[in-house]
């Protein structure tokens, strides 16, 4: 097993069946520890002891889609909906800038109330006020023309998880109206427009198999994203997947480590979902190759409304105000949080 890990460390690639063996390593085994150690070593070769932070602004929990796993799906009438105004969003970035954020991630449900013009105005104004900051959009599937307009307005990056690279699995997680092909078209468009692109998938999503995970890794190799976000699936009680099993902590950690070895230059967040299933989850992610954290910078009164899954963490180290806690967590594992845009190394 050690040889497989060394091979992956050196060559960034191994064959499917070796990959499966690494994914399936036993929790807390010697081999798993070795995998984590090599991933940490690779992270330090490329990004030293730096941890990048992104201020996450959750624009709106209105969504026109009905992804089966997601708590803010359109048909969920039991939740309170909110939408931030342009001025509220700008206030978040002003506050975030003072706290040391140099990347702002505008994330939201697919809310048709924001026109392309609105998004462009917001992006333009953030870039005007904070020319030293990167703006990341994460607002879902759009046309090529929309993506182009956002880019021209100054957006630097775009996050859109592919969710699963297997079409039949994709269809089990999404309503018929949504298509695997359109998802992948979006990612290809974003790449061709010159965005720094982030993709990713949920670990332990319903019906996911080992083959699906391997297909996800192979798809990512083709896409060559700058950022890869993964986190455990967590059921939401008001969705069709309310009774499905939560994704596994150690499986997520092993996949972060494998991603670090396959994609040494990638920006890998230790996600809120990971921090939500274990009190030390986010710190553990940083200890196995992740190098990014995205604390919540949304206005306090809406922060607990953006519930895509149950028990989502949004206080302490998950909150922008909790940056001191985050710094301490990073220091405990020998890392430091830096004030930096944190672009991917090429
Ligand atoms: N559990 C974990 N992750 C989820 N996401 C959506 N719903 C859930 C859930 N129930 C992830 C999806 C989406 C990202 C914003 O959050 O992968 O792309």
Q: Compute the number of structural domains.
A: 1
Count of helical regions? 13
The residue-averaged pLDDT reads 96
What would the principal axes of the Cα set say about the shape? globular
Main traits of this protein?
3-stranded parallel beta sheet, 12% strand, binds 5'-deoxyadenosine, TIM Barrel, alpha/beta, 346 residues
Describe this structure as you would to a colleague.
This protein is of the alpha/beta class and 346 residues long. The protein has a single domain, classed as Aldolase class I (TIM Barrel, Alpha-Beta Barrel). It has 13 helices and nine strands. A six-stranded parallel beta sheet has the order 2-3-4-5-6-7. A three-stranded parallel beta sheet has the order 8-1-9, covered by helices on one side. Helix 9 links the parallel strand 6 and strand 7. The radius of gyration is 19 Å and the shape is globular. The mean pLDDT is 96. The protein binds 5'-deoxyadenosine. The site of 5'-deoxyadenosine has 12 residues, from loops.
What topology does this entry show?
Layout: H1 2-11, H2 16-23, H3 30-47, E1 50-53, E2 55-58, H4 86-99, E3 103-107, H5 116-129, E4 134-138, H6 144-153, E5 157-159, H7 167-173, H8 180-192, E6 196-203, H9 210-223, E7 227-232, H10 249-262, H11 272-277, H12 281-287, E8 292-293, H13 323-332, E9 336-338
Parallel strand pairs: 1-8, 1-9, 2-3, 3-4, 4-5, 5-6, 6-7
Helix pairs in contact: 1-3, 3-10, 4-5, 5-6
